[in-house]
Specification:
Order of helices and strands: HHHEEEEEEHEEEEEEEEH
Helix content: 10-25%
Largest sheet: 14 strands, antiparallel
Number of strands: 14
Distance between the termini: 17 Å
Radius of gyration: 18 Å
């Protein structure tokens, strides 16, 4: 396999080759065929703020989402004193065999490429990064990464594919008139996040304590949030525009480290199609 440094650039229509290879190599199960549309009866037992959120996100009247592929662009940094780097990312998430495959390309010093993978597959999370596609700069795995990557999958679903959450493995709890807690269980592990809703019923922030920050001194459990700065509407349903990723560290500091805009989002993409 040739290193990523030789990889041609992605286009708006076609993800980069390494991303497509990664999806193909994951051995994902086929995406379930399109089912019946979500009805009011499907939401009847859910807490009121959850019903308002699912209505606002255009879930009712459409089949449950089983997968999505997204393209994001923006900026990223690796620490509070580190410079921001241009970032381009592709990801593929599924609910059938809960999976998250996220690949990003950073430009260190706006010149040297760094490729990273954040993945959750078969109950295990992993973080990898290589400078020039050759020199390892990150390689994390273990229980902390299993939990962190699963809750990131949950955050993705809340903001980009709420139809994926109408699943027996997902639970809901009202925490206020305009907020709720959502949790998912996979591989014997349960993670959760609080979703805060704005006036139109769409999330303006998602927060969780089920993530570990990879800091110079080691892994630290910390509150993680993804405040939303912009929503759009595509094909009659809200679509995430711009959002940030922020660590709220135990010493009281806040560390915004990601600022991304969704440039493309496709639902119910089969693994084979995502790998082409």
């Amino acid at each position: 396999m040739s290193p990523d440094v030789a990889e041609p650039p992605a286009t708006a229509e076609r993800p980069p080759r390494a991303f497509r290879r990664g999806v193909a190599a994951a051995g994902l199960p086929a995406v379930a065929t399109e089912g019946a549309p979500v009805t009011e009866d499907d939401l009847a037992a859910l807490p009121p703020p959850v019903r308002r959120y699912l209505h606002a996100m255009g879930v009712v009247g459409r089949p449950r989402t089983r997968s999505f592929r997204a393209h994001l662009s923006g900026r990223f940094r690796r620490g509070p004193d580190a410079p921001w780097m241009p970032c381009d990312a592709w990801q593929y998430n599924t609910v059938d065999g809960i999976t998250r495959l996220f690949r990003m390309r950073l430009l260190v010093g706006r010149a040297v490429p760094l490729w990273g993978w954040d993945t959750y597959r078969a109950g295990h999370g992993r973080m990898r990064g290589k400078l020039l596609g050759l020199v390892p700069v990150a390689n994390g795995s273990g229980p902390e990464f299993d939990t962190s990557e699963l809750v990131t999958w949950l955050d993705d679903a809340v903001l980009m594919a709420p139809g994926m959450l109408l699943d027996p493995r997902v639970g809901w709890e009202e925490t206020g008139a305009d907020s709720f807690r959502v949790a998912v269980t996979d591989a014997g592990r349960t993670v959760g996040a609080e979703v805060r809703l704005g006036a139109h019923g769409r999330p303006y922030d998602v927060r969780t304590d089920d993530r570990w920050a990879d800091l110079p001194g080691g892994l630290v459990r910390a509150t993680w949030s993804t405040p939303v700065l912009d929503w759009g509407v595509v094909d009659g349903r809200p679509r995430l525009g711009r959002a940030c990723a922020v660590w709220h560290l135990p010493d009281g500091r806040e560390l915004p480290y990601g600022d991304m805009t969704v440039t493309d989002l496709e639902y119910d993409i089969a693994p084979g199609e995502a790998a082409r």
